[in-house]
Inverse folding.
């Protein structure tokens, strides 16, 4: 048995010394490692398609009058100039009658969680600018700077009815303006919303926290309506009496499209004309259905269970479309009666 074992081992060593064999082994090893890496990367990508962060950035938690003190104060444990300053945010907010979570969320977003030079060197968490002296304000203390920021927030936004993060963002960080060529303003609403959720959720104006009090949320970030439900001029034919069966929202090529409510994927069309809708997804939510048209790419399949705010596709211009946008419908039966989405969406 030993002699046979030595003979086998000798044969194996001779076999491995062959340069052609070693080359083949090396190639097989490289291919195997590459395949494994691709699978891991694809797995991570697919998970991120419907991550909790997508939901968090779209849908803002809100509970009237109930400050989650544990989460709120935890955010101030290590926050640069804001460290251990949670009580100051609450005190200043009470003076001005605004939501401390809203004030803190904007301040954290504007200062990189209390680390910017503006707040550390000027005590100016709101980046308030002195137009007379053409420089940013410098305040004697952080409390003074917070108070000025809170007063500005109330005077220029909340007092005129801009109370939700989306409404404030439409004025503070408007989209498509000349001084924002890289479209960085598009990040303002989702970033501030994310901070608000980390603080435990907004505590005031909950009826407007997600643009109203309906059961459906907006299917795109930073929603801008480009064509409403009802009669309109057909953008393709020019006909005067075309009845638009849904609401169109502006979006850019590849922007995420979110599920307006939790439900089940009823239809998913990945190619072709799609009856004019192009590539589209239809979700069933009990006795109602939502349709998301002109997508570039749906990322769900029939039968999938989806959560409200989960990414289900990407903005495109497929089907009967004149440019990148989302056509959104709420239906009472599949391809049956349509209703005005704005009566159901979280929007006043």
């Amino acid at each position: 048995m030993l002699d046979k074992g030595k003979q086998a081992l000798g044969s194996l060593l001779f076999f491995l010394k062959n340069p052609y064999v070693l080359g083949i082994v090396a190639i097989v090893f490289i291919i195997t490692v590459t395949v494994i890496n691709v699978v891991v990367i694809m797995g991570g990508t697919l998970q991120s398609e419907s991550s909790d962060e997508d939901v968090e950035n779209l849908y803002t938690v809100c509970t009237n009058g109930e400050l989650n003190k544990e989460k709120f104060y935890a955010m101030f444990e290590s926050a640069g100039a804001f460290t251990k300053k949670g009580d100051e945010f609450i005190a200043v907010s009470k003076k001005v009658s605004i939501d401390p979570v809203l004030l803190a969320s904007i301040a954290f977003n504007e200062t990189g969680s209390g680390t910017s030079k503006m707040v550390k060197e000027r005590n100016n968490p709101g980046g308030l600018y002195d137009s007379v002296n053409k420089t940013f304000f410098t305040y004697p203390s952080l409390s003074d700077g917070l108070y000025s920021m809170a007063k500005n927030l109330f005077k220029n936004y909340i007092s005129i009815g801009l109370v939700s993060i989306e409404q404030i963002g439409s004025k503070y960080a408007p989209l498509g303006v000349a001084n924002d060529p890289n479209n960085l303003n598009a990040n303002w609403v989702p970033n501030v919303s994310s901070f608000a959720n980390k603080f435990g959720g907004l505590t005031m104006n909950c009826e407007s926290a997600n643009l109203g009090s309906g059961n459906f949320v907006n299917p795109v970030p930073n929603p801008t309506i480009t064509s409403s439900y009802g009669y309109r001029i057909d953008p393709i034919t020019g006909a005067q009496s075309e009845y638009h069966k849904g609401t169109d929202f502006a979006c850019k090529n590849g922007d995420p499209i979110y599920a307006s409510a939790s439900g089940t994927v009823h239809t998913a069309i990945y190619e072709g004309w799609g009856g004019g809708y192009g590539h589209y997804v239809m979700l069933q939510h009990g006795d109602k259905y939502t349709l998301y048209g002109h997508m570039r790419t749906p990322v769900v399949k029939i039968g999938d269970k989806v959560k409200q705010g989960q990414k289900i596709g990407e903005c495109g211009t497929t089907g009967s479309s004149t440019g990148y946008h989302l056509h959104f419908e709420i239906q009472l039966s599949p391809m049956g009666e349509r209703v005005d989405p704005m009566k159901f969406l979280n929007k006043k």
Remarks:
- The chain has eleven helices and 15 strands.
